[in-house]
């Protein structure tokens, strides 16, 4: 079926043969895109953290292991099926952040003690600071 558009004998096809080819191409492209994304999702190595709770079985009883702040586990010295006793270390958390915070707080305590010694010297009219009684 054809239809005349203007006086120059230009005709256009209304049969839809070009539409079938486009639908086939779109379907193939969609399948290829889905397969590509699915393949990437299955094989991609993503760096990330998983947050979860763990459970240990102790003499038939289940004990939950939780940490108030959470953190990164750096070592698990026990193996599956190991017998553990009270006081045994079952996992170690990374203490880097805690050591940094301890250093900061220790520095702040030293600064406050120095300020206290200066203020006591000013109050008592001393020319020399005295750190007696102030453990640094």
UniProtKB/TrEMBL annotation:
Protein name: Rhizobiocin secretion protein
Residue intervals passing through the bilayer: 21-42
Keywords: Membrane, Transmembrane, Transmembrane helix
Keyword Transmembrane listed: yes
């Amino acid at each position: 079926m054809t239809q005349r558009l203007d006086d120059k004998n230009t005709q256009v096809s209304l049969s839809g043969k070009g539409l079938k080819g486009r639908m086939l191409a779109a379907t193939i492209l969609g399948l290829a895109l889905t397969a590509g994304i699915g393949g990437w999702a299955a094989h991609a190595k993503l760096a990330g953290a998983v947050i979860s709770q763990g459970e240990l079985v102790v003499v038939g009883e289940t004990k939950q292991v939780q940490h108030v702040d959470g953190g990164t586990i750096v070592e698990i010295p026990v193996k599956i099926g190991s017998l553990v006793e009270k006081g045994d270390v079952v996992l170690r958390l990374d203490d880097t952040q805690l050591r940094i915070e301890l250093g900061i707080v220790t520095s702040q305590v030293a600064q406050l003690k120095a300020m206290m010694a200066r203020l006591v010297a000013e109050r008592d009219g001393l020319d020399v600071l005295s750190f007696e009684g102030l453990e640094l």
